[in-house]
Specification:
This protein is of the alpha/beta class. The chain has eight helices and eleven strands. It has two domains: 134 residues, 3-Layer(aba) Sandwich (Rossmann fold), CATH 3.40.50.720; 101 residues, Dihydrodipicolinate Reductase, domain 2 (2-Layer Sandwich), CATH 3.30.360.
């Protein structure tokens, strides 16, 4: 594949390394200094773009990909209030987008475990549930997009919880989500069920960025000849079922 990387921070550099190891061609990297290259002929020649930037930049970057006719994989979180608008733009431009709060294969298995456990715990109302996520101090959004996905999936599968909140809540139907920022911390998510007699905990911890980068490359390869808006779950089902 001919890949453009939009955003060349730590994640972009990891994708660059792993993509080249798989014999993909990184034809262009874009950051704040050369954002005008989103309008270049070289950018338009790409098979796919992979976007990891900041929440306030993602919308315009994805829109630029639609305008250029380049399919885009977006790993940035914190912009989902504009998802419906981008779905409309994607249809108008006949574009292609795949998005996810987390592209790690392990995390997507963790999503499945979270939903399964939530369903089972409906039978045991004495357990209080909470979510805790830990990331590096440079991560701007809190809770993380992954934590929000975990919270929403749990709410959809647990009869008690109706909403999630940042931190403690006095409401019986509110699921508390705690965010910790410290260095070094590539990313850890925990689902905790606590009763007076014991505690059940499932967790996922990333040791490095490779899992996220590999998932984004898989997604890019899957998306390159498609049209429409997809979630990584679509890739996960087809690639790893």
């Amino acid at each position: 594949m001919k890949i453009v990387l939009i955003g060349y921070g730590k994640m972009g550099k990891t994708i660059d390394l792993l993509a080249k190891q798989q014999n993909h061609n990184i034809i262009l990297t874009i950051d704040a200094e050369n954002v005008k290259d989103l309008e270049s002929d070289l950018f338009k020649s790409a098979d796919v773009a992979i976007e990891f930037t900041q929440p306030n930049q993602a919308f315009q970057n994805i829109k630029a990909c639609f305008d250029a006719g380049v399919p885009v994989v977006c790993g940035t979180t914190g912009w989902y209030d504009k998802l419906q608008e981008l779905k409309t733009l994607c249809a108008e431009k006949n574009g292609a987008l795949i998005h996810a709060t987390n592209f790690s294969i392990g995390v997507n298995l963790f999503f499945i475990l979270n939903k399964m456990l939530a369903k089972q715990m409906n039978h045991y109302p004495s357990y209080e549930v909470s979510i805790k996520e830990t990331h590096h101090t440079a991560k701007l959004d809190a809770p993380s997009g992954t934590a929000i996905t975990l919270a929403e999936d749990l709410i959809n599968n647990h009869e008690r919880y109706k909403v999630w909140t940042k931190g403690e809540s006095t409401e019986n139907d509110a699921l508390p989500v705690f965010s910790i920022r410290e260095n070094p911390a590539p990313g850890k998510h925990e689902i905790i069920y606590t009763s007076e007699i014991d505690e059940i905990k499932i967790s996922h911890e990333a040791f490095n960025r490779n899992g996220f980068a590999l998932g984004a490359i898989y997604a890019a390869d899957w998306l390159k000849d498609k049209k429409g808006v997809y979630h990584f779950a679509d890739v996960f089902t087809s690639q790893f079922s």
